[in-house]
Amino acid sequence: MRGAASQDAEKERILSCSPLAALASPSRRVLFELGTFELLARRQCVCQQGAPPRHLVLIGAGRVKVERVSEGRVVPLGHRGPGDLVGESALAGATVSSESATVLDEGDALVVPLARLERQLAADAALRDALTAALVARKLETEARLGSLLLCTVEVRLLEFLRAAARRWGQPHTAGQLVSAPFTHADIALLIGSTRETVTLLLGKLKRAGLIAFDRRRIVIRDGEHLAAHAATA
Question: Which of 79, 92, 116, 210 falls 20 to 30 Å from 228 in CA-CA distance?
Fold first, then answer.
């Protein structure tokens, strides 16, 4: 069992990288009291499509796959990592979860019961505003991803994915910045709307250009600035 001070330190770490990072006391303190620090085990179901939502989850570490089943087909909605929310659609009034979320890489999270959170929101304008801003940011991110799928080439979508992955899972590496999440080529293909073969070819092209490298099947961004410039001209 972790002591109260240790629990608060873990909650502060998670909150500081989330969309609620700027939330000030007393709202920040209340959120600490409402939520619990929990470890996320691999294959753990964080929320289930069609089931009543019970928690808002702020991810501190690890990776969570979010997907939706529509007309018998699985639609990948993305992978959430440090700083991301899971279950936020319930804050807009959804009575059942519109997607499922499953832990891919073990990590940890600040887990807040929705029933208690909703009662607090009714009286806490600062917390309400912060969560509203987070919902708007998620909407804009989704619109940007849709626009990319419709208007950008596969290569540009791959470059955008790599830059986003580095922001979420990036760690210092002797060759640049390591994307610690072990994305397979098939994972990436699903997320950018391509095929595994095409992703493999494009990653090989980026490696030959000196923009990326590999370390134990994980991607290393060797030069983030050149990668961004390449995305702008691809």
Answer: 79
Report residue 162 CA to chain centroid gap. Answer: 13
State the Cα–Cα distance between residues 163 and 116, nearest whole angstrom.
Answer: 36
Helices H / strands E in the chain, number of each? 8, 10
pLDDT in tens, 176-216: 999 999 999 999 999 999 999 999 999 999 999 999 999 99
Q: What residues does CATH 2.60.120.10 cover in the chain?
A: 4-149
Q: Which of left, alpha, beta for 149 (phi over 0: left; psi -120 to 50: alpha)?
A: alpha
CB 199 within 8 A of CB 184: no
User: What residues does 151 pair with on adjacent strands?
Assistant: none
**What pLDDT score was predicted for residue 1?**
45
Q: Locate 189 and state its tokens.
A: 């293909």
Where in the sequence of the chain do the CATH 1.10.10.10 domains occur? 152-233
* CATH classification number, 152-233, choose in 1.10.3720.10, 1.10.10.10, 3.40.50.300, 3.40.309.10: 1.10.10.10
Whether this prediction's pTM lies above 0.85 is answered by yes
How far is Cα 187 from Cα 169, in angstroms, rounded to an integer? 15
